[in-house]
C-alpha cells in the first residue's frame, strides 16, 4: 500500500520526443486513478515511467516513502498488466500466476498455494492447468491481473486493461475490476483512451494532452466543468455544444439568445452539454429539428438555431424532424470559455 | 488439366536437371564406388571390382576412422553446438540495447569472418598462429607452434570465430520476435538476466535454437577448411572426417574406401538431422 508522488517529471525519448513534459501528479494510497487522453498524449509513457520501464529525464518518482526514480523496475514494488496481457504461452495458468513467486525462489508448494488463492479471487477456479491459448479473452485478462496481484506489489499499473475485450465483456470486466480494486484497496493507475471507461472506473482522472495534464479531478468534476475546450471536447459520449458567443453588459449572446453572465466583455465560447439541455415551453433557445439520432433510452436531437445545437431528450419527448422546439440549459451548467480556451 | 501440368514440368525441369546432375548423380555414384575397390591409379582404376560391404567393415575396424569420428564429434560439439551457438546468442542478446553504431560495428566485424573465402581466412589464421613471428605468439610473448601443439583447440577456436556470425544474425532476428511486454513483465517481477532468458526468451526462440543448431552442426561436420590449416596433422591429431576422406581418396588413392567413409558421414548427418527434427516437432 502506497501513494505515488510524481514531481516535475519529464520523459524524453532518444529521438528527442518529449512524451511527458514537466509533470506533477499525486495519486493517493488506495486510489483508482485514470490517465486519460488521445493516442500520443504521453499517458502510456507516464505509466511506464512510474513502472521504471522508461527512465525519467528529469524530476522524481516516489512510491510510498521511497524515491524510486533511479531504481530498476524489479525493485519498485510495482506490478503491471500489459494491454496484450503478456501471458507466457508455454506456462500453465498456475505457472503464470505464480511466476513472481518463482522468480523469488518461493517453494513449489507456496507457488501452487498462491495460484489457487488467486484463482479463487479472480474466478479462475478449474482453469489452473490450462495454457493461456485455451482461455477466453476475459479469462486471460483475469489471469494477467492475478499474476500482477500475486506479485504482492504496492502499486498496480494497468495499460488499457479493457481494450482487448469485446464490447459486452468489457462492461462485465469493468465492474469486476472496480470491485476487485475496492476489495484489495491497492493503489491502481490505469491508462485509457476511452473517456466512458475512465468516468465509470476511476476515483480521479487526469486528462492528458501533449505530455501535460489538462485537468485533474473526479469524474463528476471533469464531466460537469471541463477546465478547457480540449477536455470539453474529449469527455462525454455525445460531443459538447461549443457555440460562439459574446459577453456584453452582464449578458452572453449566442445562438440567437441571451443569458445572464458575469465577467469581462469579449468573445467567448459557450459550452453546454446536450444532456444538460431540456425541452421547455419557455426555453431560451429555439430552433427547428434537423436530425434525430436514437441512442436507446434517449435521442440526440440536432436543433438548427443558426448554429447546430445538440440536445439529448428522453424517449417519450422525442420530436419529429421539422418540429419547432424550445430548450433551456439546466441551471449552472452553462460554461464560458475565453479566447485562450480556458474556462472563465 | 494436362496442359498446365506440362507447363509446370517444363518450368521445374531445369532445376531438376541441375539437382540431378550435381547432387543426385554424385550421391548415387558415391554409393556405387563405395562398394567397389576403385583406386585412383593401378589396375582397379580401370577395372574396379564390386567388393560389397568390405569397405564399410574395414572402415569400422580402422583406428584412424574411429579417431576421425571422435575428432569430428569434438569439432562439432565444441565449435558449433556450444561455441557458435553460445557466443552467437550472447552477442545477439548483448547487442540488443547498445547504441546503433556500436552494434553495426560489431556485427560488421563478425560478418567479415563469415563472408571471407575459406583459403583467405585459413591463410590469415596461419599467420596468427604461426610459431615464427605469428601474431598470437608475438602478443603473448611465446613461440608456441599453436597448430602443431594444440591442433584441435586451434581448429575449434578458428571455427567459432569463422561461423559465429550466422548464429548471431539468426538469434538477432529471433530475439526481435520476442514480445517486448513479455520481457518487461519479467523485468517488473525482478527476474535476473538468466531467469529472463530461461523463462521468457528461450521458450520463444526454441525453434530457432534447434534450426540453428542443426544447420551449424551439419556445416561444421562437413567443413573442409581444417585441411587448409592443419591438413589433419600432426600425426592425425586433427584429422576430422572430411579431411580423412580427402586424404584417403587423393593422397592414398583409395577412392572406394573414401566413398564408403563419405557415406558413413552422410548417414551420421542424417541421424543428427532426424534427431533435431524430432525435437522440433515435439515443441508444445
Fold and architecture overview:
Chain A has helices spanning 43-51, 93-97, 99-103, 108-121, 137-150, 167-184, 195-201, 219-224, 229-234; strands at 4-12, 18-27, 32-36, 58-63, 66-67, 78-81, 155-159, 187-192, 204-209, 212-217, 241-248, 251-254, 257-260, 266-272, 277-279, 285-294, 298-305, 307-314, 324-329, 335-337. With 344 residues, chain A is an alpha+beta fold. Chain A folds into 2 domains: 4-234, P-loop containing nucleotide triphosphate hydrolases (Rossmann fold), CATH 3.40.50; 241-337, RNA polymerase II/Efflux pump adaptor protein, barrel-sandwich hybrid domain (OB fold (Dihydrolipoamide Acetyltransferase, E2P), Beta Barrel). In chain A, the strands form 4 sheets. Chain A has a 6-stranded mixed sheet with strand order 6-7-8-3-9-10, sandwiched between helices. A 5-stranded antiparallel sheet of chain A has the order 13-12-11-14-20. A 5-stranded antiparallel sheet of chain A has the order 15-19-16-17-18, with no helix packed on it. In chain A, helix 6 links the parallel strand 7 (155-159) and strand 8 (187-192). Chain B has one domain (63-281): MetI-like (MetI-like fold, Orthogonal Bundle). Chain B is built from 14 helices and no strands. In chain B, helix 9 crosses helix 11 (193-221). The radius of gyration of chain B is 23 Å and the shape is globular. The mean pLDDT of chain B is 88. The interface between A and B is medium-sized, with 27 and 17 residues.
Amino acid at each position: 500500500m502506497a501513494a505515488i508522488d510524481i514531481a516535475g517529471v519529464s520523459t524524453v525519448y532518444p529521438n528527442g520526443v518529449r512524451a511527458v513534459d514537466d509533470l506533477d501528479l499525486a495519486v493517493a494510497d488506495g486510489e483508482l486513478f485514470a490517465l486519460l487522453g488521445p493516442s500520443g498524449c504521453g499517458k502510456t509513457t507516464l505509466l511506464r515511467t512510474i513502472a521504471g520501464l522508461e527512465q525519467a529525464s528529469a524530476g522524481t518518482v516516489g512510491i510510498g516513502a521511497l524515491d524510486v526514480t533511479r531504481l530498476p523496475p524489479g525493485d519498485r514494488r510495482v506490478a503491471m498488466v500489459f494491454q496484450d496481457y503478456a501471458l507466457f504461452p508455454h506456462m500453465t495458468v498456475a505457472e503464470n500466476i505464480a511466476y513472481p513467486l518463482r522468480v523469488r525462489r518461493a517453494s513449489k508448494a507456496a507457488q501452487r498455494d498462491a495460484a489457487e488463492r488467486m484463482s479463487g479471487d479472480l474466478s479462475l477456479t478449474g482453469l489452473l492447468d490450462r495454457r493461456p491459448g485455451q482461455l477466453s479473452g476475459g479469462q486471460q485478462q483475469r489471469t494477467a491481473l492475478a499474476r500482477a496481484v500475486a506479485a504482492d506489489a504496492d502499486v498496480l499499473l494497468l495499460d488499457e486493461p479493457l481494450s482487448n475485450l469485446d464490447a459486452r465483456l468489457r462492461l462485465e470486466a469493468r465492474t469486476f475490476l472496480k470491485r476487485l480494486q475496492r476489495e484489495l484497496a491497492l493503489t491502481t493507475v490505469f491508462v485509457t483512451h476511452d473517456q466512458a471507461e475512465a468516468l465509470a472506473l476511476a476515483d480521479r482522472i487526469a486528462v492528458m494532452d501533449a505530455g501535460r495534464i489538462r485537468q485533474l479531478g473526479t469524474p463528476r468534476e471533469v464531466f460537469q466543468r471541463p477546465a478547457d475546450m480540449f477536455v470539453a471536447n474529449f469527455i462525454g459520449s455525445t460531443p459538447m455544444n461549443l457555440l460562439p458567443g459574446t459577453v456584453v453588459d452582464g449578458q452572453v449572446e449566442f445562438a440567437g439568445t441571451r443569458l445572464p453572465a458575469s465577467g469581462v466583455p469579449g468573445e467567448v465560447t459557450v459550452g453546454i452539454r446536450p444532456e444538460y439541455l431540456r425541452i421547455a415551453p419557455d426555453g431560451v433557445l429555439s430552433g427547428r429539428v434537423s436530425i434525430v439520432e436514437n441512442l436507446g433510452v434517449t435521442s440526440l436531437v440536432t436543433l438548427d438555431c443558426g448554429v447546430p445545437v445538440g440536445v439529448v431528450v428522453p424517449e417519450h419527448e422525442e420530436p419529429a424532424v421539422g418540429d419547432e422546439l424550445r430548450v433551456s440549459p439546466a441551471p449552472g451548467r452553462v460554461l464560458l470559455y475565453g479566447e485562450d480556451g480556458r474556462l472563465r | 488439366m494436362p496442359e498446365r501440368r506440362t507447363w509446370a514440368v517444363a518450368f521445374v525441369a531445369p532445376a531438376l536437371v541441375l539437382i540431378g546432375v550435381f547432387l543426385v548423380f554424385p550421391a548415387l555414384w558415391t554409393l556405387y564406388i563405395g562398394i567397389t575397390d576403385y583406386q585412383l591409379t593401378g589396375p582397379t582404376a580401370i577395372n574396379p571390382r564390386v567388393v560389397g560391404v568390405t569397405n564399410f567393415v574395414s572402415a569400422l575396424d580402422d583406428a584412424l576412422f574411429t579417431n576421425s569420428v571422435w575428432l569430428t564429434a569434438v569439432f562439432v560439439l565444441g565449435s558449433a553446438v556450444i561455441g557458435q551457438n553460445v557466443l552467437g546468442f550472447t552477442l545477439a542478446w548483448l547487442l540488443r540495447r547498445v547504441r546503433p553504431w556500436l552494434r553495426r560495428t560489431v556485427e560488421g566485424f563478425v560478418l567479415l569472418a563469415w563472408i571471407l573465402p575459406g583459403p583467405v581466412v585459413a591463410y590469415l589464421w596461419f599467420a596468427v598462429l604461426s610459431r615464427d613471428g605469428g601474431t598470437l605468439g608475438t602478443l603473448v610473448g611465446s613461440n608456441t607452434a599453436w597448430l602443431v601443439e594444440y591442433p584441435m583447440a586451434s581448429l575449434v577456436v578458428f571455427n567459432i570465430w569463422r561461423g559465429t556470425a550466422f548464429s548471431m544474425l539468426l538469434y538477432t532476428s529471433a530475439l526481435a520476435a520476442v514480445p517486448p511486454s513479455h520481457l518487461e513483465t519479467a523485468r517488473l517481477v525482478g527476474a535476473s538476466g538468466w531467469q529472463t532468458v530461461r523463462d521468457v526468451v528461450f521458450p520463444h526462440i526454441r525453434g530457432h535454437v534447434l534450426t540453428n543448431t542443426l544447420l551449424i552442426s551439419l556445416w561444421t561436420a562437413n567443413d573442409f577448411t581444417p585441411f587448409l590449416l592443419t591438413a589433419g596433422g600432426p600425426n592425425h591429431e586433427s584429422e576430422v572426417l572430411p579431411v580423412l576422406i580427402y586424404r584417403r581418396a587423393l593422397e592414398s588413392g583409395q577412392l572406394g574406401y573414401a566413398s564408403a567413409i563419405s557415406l558413413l558421414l552422410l548417414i551420421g548427418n542424417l541421424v543428427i538431422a532426424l534427431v533435431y527434427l524430432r525435437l522440433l516437432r515435439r515443441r508444445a
